[in-house]
Amino acid sequence: MIDIHAHILPGIDDGAEDTQEAIEMAKLAVSSGITAIVATPHANLPGVYDNYYNKNYEESFQWLKKSFQRAEIPLQLYSGMEVFVTSDVPQLIKEGKLLTINGGRYMLVEFAFDEEPAYVKRMLKEIAELRVIPVVAHAERYEFLQDNPRIAMQWKELGYVVQANKGSFVGRFGRRAREVAYQLLDQNLISVIASDCHGSYQRTPFMQEVYETLMKDYSKKQLETLFKDNPMRICHNQSLIEEGSVVTKWGIMKSTQREK
Prior knowledge:
Low-confidence stretches: 245-260
Shape: globular
Mean pLDDT: 92
């Protein structure tokens, strides 16, 4: 498995407090079958976490990467951010202050949970116009999507990526988030499931439990796509695999079979 949403960089946001906790999180990830993880600290969160790409980010990332090597933890670390979308995000992208996942076209983005859908639609369009593919973090948790899950279909048709949190499937974020997560999964509107981990005791990167829970109702092939194949493709800047279609970098291409 590959986890594209993890608050594992130490001391940067509300994730790992220090290097030791980051190492414990990495060990948990490996023990659950994760081979690669994307460090996605909160970025551009007004008044809370700025975390733009700078020397501090690069030093923290390289330090953690070397810490994994010293501890002999077989976990590939990729760079990224969870970008809180404000009206100046397109300009910040142009200025190189916001990171995509592993330097590719995919960018993990989030909104306020009570955001207006019209604003979300406009900002995602502006981001996509820069040839950056939005990966909408924990989509099932947004109130506007809970009220109108069909918005996720519109995103898919536009080539955006829907990421769901593992915790939503076990009720970690409430009944509505759980119901919408399963609804989106049943309709093949989720492209990737990630941990959104924040620590080694709560909201951990241990993915195996949720994977096994979903195995009761969904095929191994479908889950491998969500937990492994699509996350890998995001990290390597490749098109994603979808049920009945292939989502290309800039749109949707109909297909009768999964991409091989």
